[in-house]
Specification:
two-stranded antiparallel sheet, mainly alpha, globular, 191 residues
Length: 191
């Protein structure tokens, strides 16, 4: 079965990785490999995991013990959080109906929160992170065909992703389309 990430070329996969490295949560090698459809050696090389760098830092995730990589100087935007959410979904898996379920799976909003460095049920305290998270919801709503000045973007995204017929591949496609600036095709317009 071909998945959305199977269609990413190296340039697009690198772009998504670079954007995700700009989030407070950073990335883990296994999650990045899974989300981008690449092997772990490719991701390790891209982030320079085997070299010392002042640009990318490696920190231990105190909760899981995994090494997380991120840029030393973060510039968090709506697009970086959406790229981070894509990798978070690869790490935690996707849920519907709640930001985080009992198995630790997250929905799009929960993934955005985790990418922003907070619990899936919380909003960031830092104004620039909150602005980026709300802008990410607006960007998602626009890509779904809604005007965020006329609808609540968060509710709109939640309603879309909670549709019982929605699939994880459709969620991943939405996020990838945004971070790689992929133009919708005729079949995508009926999201």
């Amino acid at each position: 079965m071909t998945t959305v990430t199977d269609t990413l070329d190296d340039i697009a996969a690198t772009a998504v990785l670079v954007l995700a490295l700009s989030t407070p949560a950073g990335v883990t090698i296994p999650a990045a490999a899974a989300a981008l459809g690449r092997d772990e050696a490719w991701v390790r090389w891209q982030v320079g995991a085997d070299t010392t760098s002042d640009t990318i830092t490696a920190v231990e995730d105190l909760r899981t013990g995994a090494t997380r990589y991120r840029y030393a100087d973060l510039v968090v935007t709506d697009i970086t959080l959406i790229a981070g959410a894509l990798l978070v979904l690869a790490e935690h898996d996707w849920a519907q109906g709640e930001h985080q379920d009992d198995l630790g799976r997250v929905d799009i909003t929960g993934a955005l929160s985790l990418a922003a460095g907070v619990h899936p049920q919380e909003l960031p305290d830092a104004p620039h992170l909150l602005d980026a998270l709300l802008a990410a919801e607006d960007t998602l709503a626009v890509d779904l065909g809604y005007d965020p000045t006329e609808v609540d973007a968060g509710d709109t995204v939640a309603a879309w992703q909670d549709d019982p017929d929605r699939t994880a591949d459709e969620v991943h496609a939405l996020l990838i389309d945004i971070v790689t600036y992929t133009a919708p095709t005729k079949t995508d317009t009926a999201r």
